[in-house]
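chain below, 165 aa
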Amino acid sequence: MKFIEHPFGPMYNEKSRILILGSFPSVKSREQSFFYGHPQNRYWPLIASLLGEEAPAHGDIEAKRHLAFSHGIAMWDVIRSCRIEGSSDSTIEDVTVNDLRLILEAADIRQIFCNGTKSFELYQKYTKKLTGRDAIKLPSTSPANAAWNIQRLKEAWKVILPYLE
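prediction:
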């Protein structure tokens, strides 16, 4: 297993109202140096649909950034560095976490959400004691989470909407 440092920083600004945390970027996300870069990940189509917007084109990072920022969404990952095989959360070992205070001190984050079980477990284990804040676990948008179709994901993820109003 390879030891990897997170290859890109958080995405937030002073208008961010929610923080969505992944576990650690996939191989495709690491290649693009941006969040949810795998073409089969449902994150961007899901977020766009929830917000009544058109989904950004797969490789259009600026459109994705604009979509998130224009609706008050900050993003980062719980893990700063770890050992991981490919993109598999189940192989993650030797975790060092990101310091989320960077975002929490700069923006009025109303709620933290975790994209998937691994993100939530890592947040609970390592990060909650540093932030003193609860997080809400959402089903993963990863293509590996095939049990959840886009409609079912949309139903679960709509809990983010009141925090963006």
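The first strand starts at residue 2 and ends at 5. The chain has one domain: 2-164.
thats it, cya
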